[in-house]
Amino acid sequence: MFFQLKTYLPTAALAFLIFYFGFHALTGDRGLLLAQQRREMFTEKQAELAQLRAERADLETRARLLRDESLSADLLEERAHVLLGFADPRDYVIRIAPERG
After folding, report:
1. What ranges in 1-101 are assigned the alpha helix state H?
2. Rounded to two decimals, what is the model's pTM?
3. Is 97 domain-assigned?
4. Distances, alpha carbon 74 to alpha carbons 11, 32, 65, 71, in Å
5. Domain tally for the chain?
6. Which domain range does residue 75 map to?
7. What does the DSSP 8-state code read for residue 28?
8. What is the pLDDT of residue 42?
C-alpha cells in the first residue's frame, strides 16, 4: 500500500505548497484582501504628511523672522509675552484653567 501512495507524494506536496502560498497571498499582512485597508492607510498618512509639511513651513517662517538679519518686531513681542508672561496694559487677557485628565 505504501508503494501506491509513494507515487502521489510529490503531487500532494506540490498541492500543499500551492495551497499554503495561495492562502498567504490572500490573507497575509500584504495579501490581496487587505489592499483596500493599505490604500486607506496610505491616504491617511499622505494627509498627515501634508499637515506636518505645512507646520514645518510655518515654523521655518517664524524662525526666519526671529533671526538677527530679519527681525520681526511683532513676532518678537509675541514671543516675549508668551515666555515672560507679561501683557501690555491695553491687552485683554483671558485665563483658561488647564484641563485635568
Report:
1. 2-6, 9-27, 35-65, 73-84
2. 0.50
3. no
4. 79, 55, 10, 9
5. 1
6. 8-84
7. S
8. 95
